[in-house]
Amino acid sequence: MGPRQNQEHLAQWMARHNNMPLERQQSELQKEPGFRQLPRQTQQRMLDRLTQLNNMPDQQRQRILERNEAMERLTPPQRQQWRDAMQQFSGLPPDRRRLVGRTFRDLRELPDQQRQAVLGSDRIRSQFTDQERSTLGSLLAVEPYLPAPHSTDNIPPGR
After folding, report:
1. Would you list the domain boundaries of the chain?
2. Are the C-beta atoms of 25 and 54 separated by less than 8 Å?
3. Mind listing the pLDDT tens digit for each residue in 119-152?
4. CA pseudo-torsion sign 67, 73, 78, 84
5. 94: helix, coil or strand?
6. What sign does the CA torsion over 144, 150, 152, 155 have?
7. Contacts 24+ apart (CB under 8 A), 148-157
8. pTM
9. CB atoms closer than 10 angstroms to residue 82
10. Closest by alpha carbon to 26, among 5, 4, 54, 3?
């Protein structure tokens, strides 16, 4: 869920609170309007995510914040398409998930017309199920709006 009108984005919030120790950041997060009205499980997930972000190397944290900002710019239907594709992707067995992720990264480097040709090729049809090809197509449909992943990422951005 993205920020509501007049709410700052995660990257802005993190920049404003960057020089604070984690405990103080957590306290500030808990003071944010609406935080206490969230379900306890959601509050804890947000606090845990803040801890994760603080424990990441700067470059990795920056990539995550850029991806988050890109997701904020997606239209609601695009965000739903991405969530659905990521749910399908996450449901794949680990070996298939690695293969689909690697293929996604390879295909996103190609121009759109060439991507479509590869997706429709006999090689891709024989290598992937209909569901896996559908997942790839959905991920690639939203991909132009997302920043490029770091070369060591094992899955599509947003996860």
Report:
1. 10-55, 75-145
2. yes
3. 999 999 999 999 999 889 888 887 765 555 544 3
4. positive
5. helix
6. negative
7. 148/108, 149/63, 149/105, 150/59, 150/60, 150/63, 153/105, 154/98, 154/101, 155/89, 155/97, 155/101, 156/86, 156/89, 156/101, 156/104, 156/105, 157/67, 157/70
8. 0.59
9. 22
10. 54
* Structure confidence at residue 148 (pLDDT): 56
Torsion angle of alpha carbons 37, 80, 123, 154, nearest 10°? Answer: -30
- Which pLDDT tens digit goes with each residue over 98-110? 999 999 989 988 8
Instruction: Tell me which residue of 42, 127, 140 sits closest to 89, measured CA to CA.
Output: 140
Q: Provide, for the chain, the percentages of residues in helix, strand and coil under a 3-state DSSP scheme, each rounded to the nearest 5.
A: 70, 0, 30
* pLDDT tens profile 40-93: 999 999 899 899 999 999 898 888 888 888 888 888 888 888 888 889 999 999
Question: Residue 57 corresponds to which tokens in the numbers above?
Answer: 């190397």
